[in-house]
Specification:
Number of strands of chain A: 11
Shape of chain A: globular
CATH topology of the largest domain in chain A: Alpha-Beta Plaits
Oligomer: homodimer
Largest interface: A-B, 25 and 25 residues
Radius of gyration of chain A: 19 Å
Structural class of chain A: alpha+beta
Helix content of chain A: 10-25%
Largest sheet of chain A: 11 strands, mixed
Distance between the termini of chain A: 39 Å
């Protein structure tokens, strides 16, 4: 019996988020089913990021206790053989005893992908949020950088979150061709934090909200005027960091 | 009444190719329906490339005769408002009298996208062909380059094609991270030519077929041993060239 660490990629479109819920498809549900089918052992997996309904992952990390005597290549191949096409195990390794994908993680990186051009994109429609109006990416980046440091981010989540101070290590917004990307690395994320942040940054990019007003909203926690949360289909959990190791994850534009 | 030139992007998954057929969804069918709905004029459109079932396009060019007094921005917005989400008009312009998207075109560029890693990719599963085995991309590129020039390419199409000499201007294969790309620019393409070519190149990349044997097969037209055609979901019509103008199209990896 050891502690298994898996890296997952998934297309979140069809799932009610990572976390198991009764009677609806969840990533945790299909992964635990696949593990039970392949290993005969039904257990709970823990995940570094509890991605919401419709949110994707390139580098979600999960852990579970498992008894498996064969090689991990065999395990990965068997899991990918029974998982649905929209969830895949991309890497597996044995972790040190006591490793826990969520509690051991020291940082998470999320990226939001905006397609910023007049015409919609049939090929990217499920994986990027289409914004027609031209965006002032310089102002968006200036606002994003204001979040860096140890901050109370209550303004970027719902009213029910309790401890709302987070350590934001890096928050950036930049353009690559017709794509605008927002990426944030933090110790942990509040519920809906990235989608609220991108909603506010889009208001800034369209000139409806000033960077100063955004800074004041963050300081006071007053959400009014910050714009609606951006939809989930542009959001990706990119990678997870564990102290003493490299970040684990992937890439997308 | 003028000659309208449209550039289309589409996700081919749901369509029985570009060309109209009765009782099945085609890109031509949905485009002609959208034009009729927006303009009140039902006519036939001509396309530069007759993409097959399941093949995508980033820069398909179509033309038709149309009477439209308002601006083309209005036309594009109206068409994108009624087209299904998997087909979009990304540009529109008036062409010179006598312009015909197919007969006036002097070149087409197709790209094939191979995801070459052990694990499948949930996020790219519909838009790249997954090949697990490591590929010798140097050998694949060497074989691709053999096609450059004026060649009889009968070996890369079905038995029914009649005139099979094509002018291949550029044929390359290269790796970008976990993606292997095959791109060919030619005056025109034979039916299924790209998919047969990629099937043969994959056999070369896996070491099942030598570059010399491929060269002999092209020279003799003997298909045996060339491997099955690659599936359509990795294939993209990238851009179309017209004499005296820049290529029209997009980009994908």
């Amino acid at each position: 019996m050891g502690v298994l660490r898996l890296v997952l990629e998934y297309d979140g479109a069809r799932y009610h988020g990572f976390q198991w819920q009764p009677n609806v498809p969840t990533v945790q549900g299909v992964l635990e089913d696949a593990l039970a089918r392949v290993t005969g052992q039904r257990g709970r997996v823990a995940a570094a990021g509890r991605t919401d309904t419709g949110v994707h992952a390139l580098g979600q990390v999960v852990s579970c206790r498992l008894d498996w005597q064969r090689g991990l290549d065999d395990l990965v191949r068997a899991l990918d053989g029974v998982l649905p096409e929209d969830v895949a195990v991309v890497a597996a390794s044995w972790a040190e005893p006591g490793f826990h994908a969520r509690f051991s993680a020291s940082g998470r990186t999320y990226r939001y992908v905006i397609l910023n051009r007049v015409a919609p994109s049939p090929l990217r429609r499920l994986h990027a949020f289409h914004v027609r109006q031209s965006l002032d990416v310089t102002a968006m980046d200036e606002a994003a950088r204001l979040l860096e440091g140890r901050r109370d981010l209550a303004v970027l989540t719902g009213p029910r979150a309790q401890r709302t101070v987070r350590d934001v290590r890096r928050a950036r917004c930049w353009r690559e061709g017709d794509t605008v990307l927002v990426e944030v690395e933090a110790d942990a994320f509040l519920p809906h934090m990235m989608r609220h942040l991108v909603g506010a940054l889009l208001d800034i990019g369209r000139g409806r909200l000033g960077v100063g007003a955004f800074a004041r909203a963050v300081a006071t926690g007053e959400r009014r005027g910050l714009g609606p949360a951006a939809p989930p289909h542009g959001l990706y959990l990119m990678r997870v960091t564990y102290d003493g190791g490299p970040a684990i994850g992937g890439d997308v534009t």
